[in-house]
């Protein structure tokens, strides 16, 4: 297994335990540049991209490049090696959706020139290019659309709502609610997401498939659950709503259920407990 990463937003710490494994090797590289790999490649999982809005607003051009040039290079590699190609796409292809819940055949409501457009349009292009390689070069493409995934090993300063709230709650700092906190999201635990991708990879389908947990919560509800589970005394502080922040988001997962036999098993409280445990132990290690 070859891991290709330039660690723009990732962390070497997260793969340290894998580096002892002789089957694992690390190629420190930006996939927006040509990818050179010797020998056979059976499958490519193209998951490279900043994914937190804070990161893609900080790196707008790199985000556009990795979704376009990075996808082109990865598909070129898939073509040269006749490899299966699995794409990490996103619920952001639906933008601020006008249809609820979102089904895969909904085309979305994206502002191409707004600040979030750099991520949304890069992923939409990545899907279009993958399908073009599937149709033109018969590459075995598989597309999953990820909905607000979370879990252990996220950076405390990732910027996304769950790591932000957990970090703030554990430190007794106020939880930063953007806008009125009435916007909704549907949070998928990492283990469920990985299992969904493995089923998709092994399947005969191209998709796209929504991979998310349809249990929908607004931001205030999420803040309350995190305060309760951490036993924190944190209060809430209200900050400006980011531009084009989607008002509602919830996956329709009937397609993944029917064709992949997949549905999530970990509910929000269960997933948050495991994530809080990991954040707590990392915080304790840092303060030692
Ligand atoms: N959010 C918030 N406080 C934070 C971070 C995010 O209220 O500290 C809100 C954000 O405005 C959005 C939702 O939480 O409505 C999810 O944001 P996130 O950055 O996790 O991902 P998004 O779904 O926007 O890509």
Any overview of this molecule?
The chain is α/β, with parallel strands linked by helices. It has helices at residues 53-58, 60-81, 117-137, 161-171, 190-202, 219-230, 254-260, 268-287, and strands at residues 2-5, 25-28, 43-46, 84-90, 141-146, 149-150, 175-178, 184-186, 188-189, 209-211, 216-218, 236-239. Strands 3-4-5-10 form a four-stranded parallel β-sheet, with helices on both faces. Strands 1-2 form a two-stranded parallel sheet. A two-stranded parallel ribbon has the order 6-9. α6 crosses α8. The mean pLDDT is 97.
- Structural domain tally: 2
Main CATH class of the largest domain: Alpha Beta
| DSSP helix fraction | 25-40%
Ligand catalogue: uridine-5'-diphosphate
Strand line-up across the major sheet: 3-4-5-10
Give me the CATH architecture of the largest domain, please: 3-Layer(aba) Sandwich
- CATH fold label of the largest domain: Rossmann fold
Q: What is the beta-strand fraction?
A: 15-25%
How would a textbook summarize the main sheet? 4 strands, parallel
Counted beta strands: 12
N-to-C SSE string, H for helix and E for strand: EEEHHEHEEHEEEHEEHEHH
